[in-house]
């Protein structure tokens, strides 16, 4: 099947990166053909399901909260987090430096002009490994968008439909690209299959029934197809030895269409895929009691107060505390030989500190409901979705006393590994540290430190209290699983988002953006991420590709 529509650019993938590129290209009058294997209901891709966090440096919100941030401090944090150490890190490092300049300067204005707004409190994600020049954010930089991921995606979707109404953009869904068209080493178009119509809701797995082939041509082809997070086989194959053996059981944090297919296809045409072993998976995954996609897991965005125990009931040491060092904690837990761990906390902690990642798990912010946001901050219960998980979630256990709670934990795991006396001794030891205003317990000291920041004190970190004091109950245990999420490596690109071969030669006519390109260059995060940088990386790389093509 050939098309009479003659685009200047073909974009593969209708997620945030692809939509950003389309916006930049169509606003100068060039024509775009946007292809996606999913239905129109899924426009916006993964970003729609996100919490909507954006990494910004020295933003108005930071300044109002008394946070002193700078490009230099952010660069120090990024370098300490990324640990670039490979010859292939040349372009990822260039992308990281360019992205930080964007985040410190143009980014706030760029997204604000599109109508994206932020909550007044800035979140403090990935608090780090405890060293000034090591992993982690020295200051809060996680800006939650008003409307969560839906609020981030909507302006770009609106721009796409606006361009469509002007005849500058055509969107063709249920179009699965299977090959590139290459002539004399120049990419000239794409081939693939039209899939059968499917009316399932957003995020639900769709059919792969082929009804006809297609073939489209353009001078420029942009791959914006996402990462590998839902492809368990690829995740397992690329799993790095440094993180221990690949877990046999992982929850899936992304819809099933995040299959990594186009990354492999691009390699067949000479694209250099680098840093395949760099990936970003979470340790605080819980089974969704009301799943949308297969093996659907949700991440808890924890405050720092829950006590964290491994599968045998040993408290995790610093810096492996809730919200501190994602991959460090993952490595530690993998070395225990188990794929699950436990939080033990109180109702006071869950009320103040638990948030669940995802637009659908934060209806107050997603629906832009000020009253419900106030209720979240000052109400007597946790947000409704958290209370629903506490009631219906398989991984949540509640009891008025610790011994019964431990019995329930052993029953849930089926392994009877937990000893009540051992766990009680560890919690008692922590609780005794609260009798003075000073302590040797790293977690206790850190909680005291974080509450000096107004944002944490108001809405993120519970006041210190004794976990085993009945007035702070009931007690809650949460079983935590490994949760797949982001691809940090990918297709190597230069700063114009042009796809590069192994020798850094440009593949003419081919570009890659978003997660397929490791958010820029084939992995601008290096080994680890500072959070809030995934949506921003999609916007930035899509913008760079779009602006470059627009100038040609």
TrEMBL record:
Cofactor(s), by name: FAD
Entry superkingdom: Bacteria
InterPro entries: FAD-dep_OxRdtase_2_FAD-bd, FAD/NAD-bd_sf, KsdD_DH, Succ_DH/fumarate_Rdtase_cat_sf
Coiled-coil ranges (or none): none
Start and end residues of each FAD-dependent oxidoreductase 2 FAD-binding domain: 8-535
Record keywords: Flavoprotein, Oxidoreductase
A Pfam family of this chain: FAD_binding_2
Gene3D superfamilies: FAD/NAD(P)-binding domain, Succinate dehydrogenase/fumarate reductase flavoprotein, catalytic domain
Protein name (record): FAD-binding dehydrogenase
């Amino acid at each position: 099947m050939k098309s009479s529509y003659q685009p200047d650019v073909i974009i593969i993938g209708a997620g945030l990166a692809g939509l950003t590129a389309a916006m930049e290209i169509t606003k100068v009058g060039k024509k775009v053909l946007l292809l996606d294997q999913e239905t129109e209901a899924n426009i916006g891709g993964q970003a729609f399901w996100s919490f909507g966090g954006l990494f910004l440096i020295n933003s108005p919100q930071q300044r109002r909260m008394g946070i002193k941030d700078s490009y230099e401090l952010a660069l120090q944090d990024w370098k300490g987090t990324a640990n670039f150490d490979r010859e292939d890190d040349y372009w990822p490092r260039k992308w990281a430096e360019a992205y930080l300049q964007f985040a410190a300067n143009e980014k706030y204005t760029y997204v604000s002009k599109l109508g994206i707004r932020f909550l007044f409190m800035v979140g403090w994600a990935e608090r780090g490994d405890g060293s000034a020049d090591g992993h982690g954010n020295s200051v809060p930089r996680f800006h939650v968008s008003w409307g969560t991921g839906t609020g981030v995606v909507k302006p770009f979707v609106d721009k796409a439909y606006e361009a469509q109404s002007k005849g500058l953009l055509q969107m063709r869904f249920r179009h699965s690209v299977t090959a590139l068209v290459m002539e004399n080493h120049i990419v000239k178009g794409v081939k693939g299959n039209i899939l059968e119509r499917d009316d399932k809701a957003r995020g639900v797995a769709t059919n792969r029934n082929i009804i006809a082939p297609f073939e489209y041509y353009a001078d420029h082809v942009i791959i914006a197809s996402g990462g590998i997070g839902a492809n368990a086989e690829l995740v397992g194959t690329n799993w790095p030895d440094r993180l221990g053996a690949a877990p046999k059981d992982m929850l899936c944090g992304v819809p099933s269409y995040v299959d990594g297919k186009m990354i492999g296809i691009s390699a067949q045409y000479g694209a250099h895929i680098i840093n395949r072993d760099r990936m970003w998976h979470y340790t605080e995954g819980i089974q969704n009691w009301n799943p949308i996609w297969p093996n659907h897991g949700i991440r808890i965005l924890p405050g720092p107060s829950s006590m964290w125990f491994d599968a045998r009931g040993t408290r995790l040491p610093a810096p492996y505390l809730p919200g501190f060092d994602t991959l460090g904690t993952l490595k530690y837990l993998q070395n225990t030989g188990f794929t699950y761990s436990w939080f033990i906390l109180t109702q006071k902690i869950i009320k103040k500190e638990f948030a669940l990642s995802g637009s659908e798990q934060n209806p107050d912010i997603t629906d832009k409901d000020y009253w419900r946001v106030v209720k979240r901050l000052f109400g007597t219960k946790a947000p409704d979705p958290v209370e629903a998980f506490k009631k219906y979630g398989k991984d949540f256990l509640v009891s008025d006393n610790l011994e019964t709670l431990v019995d329930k934990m052993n029953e849930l795991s089926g392994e009877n590994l937990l000893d009540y006396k051992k766990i009680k001794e560890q919690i008692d030891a922590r609780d005794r540290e609260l009798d003075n205003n000073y302590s040797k317990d790293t977690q206790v000291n850190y909680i005291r430190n974080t509450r000096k920041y107004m944002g944490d004190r108001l809405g993120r970190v519970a006041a210190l209290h004794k976990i085993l004091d009945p007035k702070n109950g009931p007690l809650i245990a949460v079983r935590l699983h490994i949760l797949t999420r982001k691809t940090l490596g990918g297709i190597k690109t230069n700063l114009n988002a042009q796809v590069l071969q192994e020798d850094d030669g440009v593949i003419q006519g081919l570009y890659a953006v978003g997660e397929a390109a490791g958010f820029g260059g084939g992995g601008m995060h290096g080994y680890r991420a500072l959070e809030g940088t995934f949506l921003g990386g999609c916007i930035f790389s899509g913008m760079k590709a779009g602006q470059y093509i627009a100038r040609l």
